[in-house]
Structure formats: C-alpha cells, structure tokens
C-alpha cells in the first residue's frame, strides 16, 4: 500500500516537473521571438536609413556635379571677359597714342583788320573745317579740309589743313591717306610748326597699322630732323620702349 502511494506521488512530481520545464521553454521561445522581432525591426530601420543616406549622397553628388559645371562655365566666362578686356585695353592704348596732344584745343583764327576778302574767305573756310573736326564729324571735316586746300593752296593755313586732314583720316582708320597727308606737311612745309608733329604721327600710324619697322624709322627721323622739338622727346620715349 505504501509502495503504491509512493509511486503515485513520484509520478505526480514528475508531471509537475515536466509542466514547469515546458513553461520555461515557452517563455524562452517567446523571449527569443520578441528579440528576433526587435532585431528585424531594427534591421529594417537601419536599411531604410542607409537607403536614405545613399539617396542623399547621390543627390549631393548630382548637386556637386551641377555646381562644378556652373563654376567651370563661370570660369570660362571670366577668362573670356579678361581676354576681351585685354583686347580693349590694347585698342584703347593704341587709340590714345593716336590722339594728338592738341587735338582738343580749338585753333582760333584771328581776323586781321586789314585782311582782304580773299583772306577772310580762307579764314572762314579753315574755321568751318576745323569746327567740323572739333565736333568729331570727321567725314565732313575731311571733305571741308580737302576743299579748303584746293581753293586756297597758298593760304597760311594750308599746312595746318593738311595736318588736320591727316587726323581726320586717322579717326576714320584710313591710315594710308593719313600718312600721305602728314607726309605732305613734312615735305612741303619742313620748317612749319606742324612738321615735327606730322612726322611723329606718321610713326604712330605705322605702329597702329602693325608696321613696327616703318614706325621705328619715322621716330628716328623725328629725332634726327627735329631734335629740340616736343615731338622728338616723345619719339625718343617710344624708341626706348620698343628696344
């Protein structure tokens, strides 16, 4: 009898032990499932974050590429602007060299009380031509100077008329005609007031026309023929600058 009861108790204890072990296993499984779910969620979030960062990096790369392209374009535009500025500066310097010192000065022709009608007509013709030149109307001024020279070849103003005719042609970029007009002043009126300046202008026009050898020769001629003139001083400076 005692043995039977002991067996029943033992079986009961074993049953209780089995139930306890089963509960522990279930709890452990549940905990593992929960942990796995947490890890899965964390992995999904991490993948999403990595994808977002990748997209942002890609977008940043595209923006950087666009900015780099824009910078390259701006740099190219800047280089082109610098080139144009250099060309403009060179042209401006060349033009400045061709502007005579006294071009802006208005020459005043005084009427003499005893001047006859012919002299007064010559004065009026010269003043009209020079007035057109002073107003930068070079085409009309050139025509007026040509007319004045033809009508008044013996006038005291004819040397100046040839000189300013040359200046009209310089302004109109008709360099061969300008040189011809200046050369007339030098050859026909070598002792005139405009002769040194006319010869200097010949050199400057040759220089503007990209004829350095002829320009150099003209500057040397100024120094040799008119050594004490202001034109010779300028010619020496130009010769030193070209050596």
TrEMBL record:
UniProt entry keywords in alphabetical sequence: Coiled coil, Signal, TPR repeat
Coiled coil stretches, renumbered: 36-84
Record carries keyword Coiled coil: yes
SUPFAM superfamilies: TPR-like (SSF48452)
Organism annotation: Geobacter argillaceus
Lineage summary: Bacteria, Pseudomonadati, Thermodesulfobacteriota, Desulfuromonadia, Geobacterales
GO BP, sorted A to Z: cell division
Mapped TPR repeat ranges: 159-192
Name of the protein described by the UniProt record: Tol-pal system protein YbgF
Signal peptide extent: 1-20
InterPro entries registered for this protein in UniProt: CpoB, CpoB_C, TPR-like_helical_dom_sf, TPR_rpt
């Amino acid at each position: 009898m005692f043995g039977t009861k002991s067996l029943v108790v033992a079986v009961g204890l074993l049953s209780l032990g089995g139930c306890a072990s089963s509960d522990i296993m279930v709890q452990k499984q549940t905990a593992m499932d929960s942990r796995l779910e947490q890890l899965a969620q964390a992995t999904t979030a991490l993948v999403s974050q990595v994808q977002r960062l990748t997209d942002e990096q890609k977008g940043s790369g595209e923006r950087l590429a666009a900015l780099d392209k824009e910078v390259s374009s701006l740099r190219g535009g800047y280089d082109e602007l610098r080139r144009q500025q250099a060309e403009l500066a060179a042209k401006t310097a060349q033009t400045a060299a061709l502007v005579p010192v006294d071009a802006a000065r208005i020459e005043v022709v005084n009427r003499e009380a005893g001047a006859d009608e012919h002299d007064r007509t010559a004065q009026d013709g010269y003043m009209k031509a020079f007035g057109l030149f002073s107003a930068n109307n070079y085409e009309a001024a050139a025509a007026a100077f040509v007319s004045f020279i033809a009508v008044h070849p013996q006038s005291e103003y004819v040397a100046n008329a040839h000189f300013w005719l040359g200046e009209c042609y310089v302004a109109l970029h008709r360099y061969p005609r300008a040189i011809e007009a200046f050369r007339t002043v030098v050859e026909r009126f070598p002792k005139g007031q405009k002769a040194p300046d006319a010869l200097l202008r010949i050199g400057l026009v040759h220089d503007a026309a990209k004829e350095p050898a002829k320009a150099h020769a003209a500057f040397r001629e100024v120094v040799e023929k008119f050594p004490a003139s202001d034109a010779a001083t300028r010619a020496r400076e130009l010769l030193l600058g070209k050596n």
